[in-house]
Records
---
Amino acid sequence: MAILVLAEHDNQKVREGTLHAVTAAGKIGGDVHLLIAGQDCKAAADAAAKVKGVAKVIHVDDAAYANGLAENLAKLLQSLAANYSHLMATATAFGKNVMPRAAALLDAAQVSEIVAVEGPDTFIRPIYAGNALATVQATDKIKVLTVRATGFDAAAATGGSAAVETAPAAGDTGLSSYVGSELSKTERPELTSARIVISGGRGMQSGDNFKLLEAVADKLRAAVGASRAAVDAGFVPNEYQVGQTGKIVAPDLYIAVGISGAIQHLAGMKDSKVIVAINKDEDAPIFQVADYGLVADLFQAMPELAAALDK
Amino acid sequence: MKLLVAVKRVIDANVKVRVKADNTGVETANVKMAMNPFCEIAVEEAVRMKEAGTATEIVAVSCGGASCQETLRTALAMGADRGIHVQSDLELQPLAVAKLLKAVVEKEQPKLVILGKQAIDDDSNQTGQMLAGLLGWAQGTFASKLTVEGESLRVKREVDGGLETLLLKLPAVVTTDLRLNEPRYASLPNIMKAKKKPIEALTPDALGVDAAPRVKVLKVVEPPKRKSGAKVKTVAELVDKLRNEAKVI
């Protein structure tokens, strides 16, 4: 039996997060098929065919899939499911929205945010904000999974040569419609795929002060993130949030600035390779997970850091 | 319109969770429990809709053991009108809860169901989407703003790149994100009043739902501990370490 991975794409190319799910699917065993559903997304389907480890691309082009509405995509997954042992997607806002609905339509449980594959039906997933790791076995005939991107390397975006097959659309449920988006524009790398992330917390005191982090981020080609406290305080928008209920990141270098280190924040970044904490409170819990801790006032340390990186 | 709000009892967010020595789960004996924070946001939103005159009645539902009644009392003290407790001592997984809620929805006929986007115990983030799928209703997950517009609901959603707005046909299912509202603390008079509000008791059997778990938990272990490293004294020393020791910049 084959595995179907629901791809996230922008009509031109497959999003980076999906490449991690392809790797996870490869560990389960069986042919990996990538589903590209969208409107005018032929270019993305062709790009998907080049992803290493993909045996076949299922391309479904229809207005019903133009904006990633869960109601329509879940119905499409249901219509394709008979040929598959596993349905998978990366645990992004997109995957988290669609997959449980598809699972329910198939009367199957979902295993969320797997970080390791132990066998075709057995997976490891974090629970309680990563304070425990559960090994679980799915007993339904079809396994529905979401994949935590940080648990698996990304498959190579090139080097493959899968066949592209067109499949019919499954119809528009008419239940919901897309109105619009307010997406933040940034030249910096995406938070979940950046090699370096610098995040600010409540200690930043204002949104304006995030400029101090941005100056450092630009020198390191880093993404900028934030703790829940900073987002709740309105310093930065929601898409900056790193943590249990925000984005999960595991960059090579994570710099936490003015972040105390609440459990729910640590859940989103503690798998980073190297962690730096800069905080004026030497008892801040963030220092317990930091490889390098600097007890300092961030308003002095940040300009100093920006200057030191030029040397 | 009538609203249904689902609430889950979980280990309090401030408790340090410990894995049981026999690796079957986490320690829940003598641990402080509370309403899941995202469910608090769901209750708050329902109460605000009633205060604004959009909602007429709020029914709070909780599925699980006898102590879920305390969580329901919290919802009632915040402003829900009555409670439904689906009593079960099984480990209720998201699909089972979605099926139980579907049965309650069919009985109560609400126009909108509000749930938290995820529970902070199993971190599954599934139940709302599953319920919407089972009902064949529209879903607005990770909501940061709700506006009723006639027979539609405008939902602003928190997505990876920012915010997205959808228009859902009612009836619909919504799951809450953190920025939807800031939940209130129940006042003492309201806590007293909540004691008199009715809670109906139901069971999976009475609702005709097979609530048996579909995912077996084989073991639960502690994650590998991250060692705390060294303190550096200056920014210059930090940059030197990152360049020459960790070699990450």
---
Amino acid sequence: MSDAAPAVADEADASPASGEPAPDVAIRLETLTKRYPGSAVPAVDHLDLTIPRGELVALVGPSGCGKTTTLKMINRLVEPTEGTVWIEGTDARTLPAHQLRRGIGYVIQQAGLFPHRTVADNIATVPKLLGWSRERVHERVDELAELLGLDADLLPRYPAALSGGQQQRVGVARALAADPPVLLMDEPYSAVDPIVRARLQDELVRLQRQVHKTIVLVTHDIDEAIKLADRIAILRAGGHLEQVGPPEELLRAPTSEFVADFLGDDRGIKRLSLITVDDVALREGPVVGMTDSPATARAVMADQGVDWVGVRDGDRLLGWVGAADLDGEPTLATAPRRPFRAVFTPGTTLKAALDGIVTSQTRVAVIEDDQRYLGMLTLDDLAEGVTEGSGEPLEAVGEDAP
Amino acid sequence: MTLLASGPLIDWEWIGEHLDVIRAATVEHLQLTAIAVGIGFALSMALALLALQWRWSYPLLAGFCSVLYSIPSLALFGILVPITGLGTVPAVIALVGYTLLILLRNIVAGIEGVPAPVREAADGMGFEHWRRLARVDLPLALPAIIAGLRIATVTTIGLVTITAYVGLGGYGDLIREGLRRQSAPQASTLVILGTGLSVVMAVVFDLLFVGVEHLATPWARRPRLAPIEPMEPVPVAAIPAGGSLSDG
């Protein structure tokens, strides 16, 4: 999937023909521009962006970069000065604004719940505007309360009686009520405390796996974007699109100084949380069998430059034996074994693996899948994984071992 | 003033014999108050909508209402009577004039006080302009609007007594009679009765509006304390090294 939107040279009114969407494109912004009267610099300047269906795209940038303006042009809370917003192949201007908005979920900072309506009525807002029957609205409200983990006894309450986190969940339920294909989220978690924020972010990830909406999320928090987005669009002041791509790609290969700066000077560390163990090549490591002799073990240690050796029995890695404990033992089976501290599954992030490595005595992370030994990782391997990029299939080093 | 020249301060016997007069005065007082506040409210609402639509007009409208509000009531009757003659018309015009400033200001302040995120959410959900006004802005402005109605009504009940000078009934008529016939044995009874009933009516309406506000704005009642979000066990890894949860 290419990020580059088809180039549209025509700056004047876009002809309808240019809006033919690819079938997997939910939203396309075409030379989208907003100039506010009295301001010399446009808030958003000829922005082209394609948003694939079912993806969560984060618009990120410093304040004044036009990210919120861009978001609001999608549901026409801000009318573009120039350019076109295509939603599912339809020019957003061809519908009356209120009708367009009823088909687009909208979540804002501080939730923006209606204080004079109960939680249930808040959630029911758009279905009621659309004239759904009472029973259908009722059913849908219950369904959403369950989806968002809202207790049924919250439904008849007024928003003032809810905590910030609960209010934000109601805000999301309200936005999803009429099952819109597109969801716009404007700094949805900036008003809640960090612990609640982290939980809400995890919930969104889980929710998105269930509902598969096309989500456009505005945030100034690059870590939030990295955590949530399939694709990040970084904007620079004046509404210029600097770079767009999957978080991992941005962190690996920022195309400009600005993007690199914005991502922070810990890009490598950030990437560790995006790459999983199965993306990097595992090594077999200093491992011997139960029946091997101390001499064999010493040879392996010398070969690999460590003072310990892993002991495996068939598919299982049982633990490790230190060099000093080998003396006088006939085979490795009787030598005193210690367990590995850092044992992970292939789905673990490299960040967690790193943590395991630096806190373990053997300086390796052992990777197992259902007790089957797959291999191990050292600090060098992690560095390799981060610098080399991703996509290396997991090498099943365990397969051909004795 | 030797108002209380003769007779008992309050002649209960006279009152007992003239309940029909008192009832008529009460009805007339209520009617005039209701008409004035009703018209005043409708007019203020129209002016408020105008002011919200064209912002620049608000200072002009509010200024005009302030001028009306500042004219002494007797002087206003003096201006109106030569034009309209005596009777209900000048009375209602004057009374309405006095309600406008309070009501306009409270309606506009109430609607402007709707939190920006709420308004933005309403627009974003797809409310049309008029629907947002009816379903979101006005309900949320209700406490301010009712507060305005409360002040306007209490003020008007007091002012209605003065309309006796343009020939209308109500409690003002009782007071005026008492003041005019100071030598009559019931003079003090009439003055005290008219004044007292007017005050009682004002207090009753004041309390009535408190009740109406309470009933009409269940969401604005002192909320129970927001529940504390249930804490989930925090994974050890989430606790910053060298820090404690409390300073997080």
---
Amino acid sequence: MRRRNGPSDKLDAALDGRPVEVDDDLAPLIETAAKLRAALEAIELDPETVDRHLGMVLDGEAKVVALPTRPRPQASQWRRRVAAVALAAALTVLPAAVASASALPGQALFPVKLAVEQLRVTAVSWSSTREATWRIKIADNRLDEFDRLVQLNAADRIPPAIVRLIRAYVDAQQAVQDAVGDTGDPSQARALDVKLAAVTTGSAVALQRLQDKLDQGMLPASAHQAITDAIQQAPVTPGLVTGTPLPTPTTSGPTVTTATGPQTTQASTTTQAPTTTTQASTTTQAPTTTTVPPEVSDSPDQGGNDNSGQGSSGQPATTPP
Amino acid sequence: MLGTGGKQERVSRVGLTAADLVAARRREPAAVTRVYTAYAPGLFRFFLAAVGDRPTAEDLTGDVFKSAIEGLPRFRGPVEALGGWLFRMAHNDLSDFWRKQARSPSITPLDDLLDEAALAAGADDPEELAIQRIEYDRVLAALRQLSTAQREVLLLRMAAGLTGPEVAAIVGKTTGAVKALRQRGVASLARVLGVANDTSPPEPLSRSSDPVRLTSRVEEG
């Protein structure tokens, strides 16, 4: 007959987190187990190691997703083609461990990149300052991806990229607020503000570039509505850069200004960017002209249909559709 | 072979589904990443706490993960059993590692358990973190003074998060024996750390983390 409620059973229960009467004999064991648990939980994998491990398995499995291209003005055509071919070649010949760092949405290694980012955030979550720094870095990554997709005229991938940028930016902004509240060091708070401001400015520049392309008809007309809707919700809009609202794109979408208000619901009519649609339905716009992005509530299905979303919960949305 | 029908709703303790398992078998990057994210941290804790050397623990973790993904088509159990399967590999790899170490012992430095560079770069309170790190270091060094069996049982339970029966299956002992090993292991650890309230004086523990001294105490319990 098995003896119940012995020290071993009690320790077992305590290790499981079940309520147990702790007597004088058991107390030091529980304390020791707690110390061991804390020591173990402090052990984290380096993100570089994570990348290397995933590369060991995924290397050779990754396929470069063809990015859409279309005829462009003669002057820059060869340069863009070289850039696209170089990018594809780099992603083909480099090990997955390296390639994931530059993976674009829609490419096989993009979920790996998001997972590595998330692990980085988790690894530094003990410090609100470091977490804020990484969240800003992630927002900067989203900005870089968005910018590259614009350069590649990857029209169908641009709206989800904007949505991801918004979410990463909002997460970063929240993290900066938390860090500023936590830290008593004004210089650290200032440094975070400066980094975030750099992303804000970069976003404005990239969005301006996108707006220019829309105006010049360099992107398919069918993509205009979705892109325009996504721009409406971006952290900053081209109007902030130019100081004046830019012309309305060729579609019937709303004018690109900083205060879009209820017009964001127009995104619900688009079939180009379902993620943007979801985004729009949960977005509250900043009321006035400001660099503060709209607050975006976290929706688990906002990651887009390219398997690449990342919510403010920090979990990479790698669930396949 | 797992189907993709009625079993899809089954979810493991770490949030993996049968569909994840099927996709990981096909080496779909997202699913492979999910498997890695679910188990690699526990594997790494298990190895690092056992061997005390970060690069070695990283290599062992990577090897187990690679073997697991490559061997996944041969895994026939439900998704809930994946953790036990993975840590059985880890247990076997660790045994191989100790055997090789015994044949050709090498002095490997006890690596820092936290990323010092990260601490130096952005620590909120470097002094407090340094003290905390020393304490973690002390606990894990004490852990390595336990017998191999006690240590593994503790780690499989606490680092890997496995249940008693799962641990028993991996180490090839009865559930009762595993419980007893765990009880004795925690008691020994308490004595070494000076937590035990018994009358015997706590065993002195050097802060020097001398790897030779630490690894030389490995003995079967």
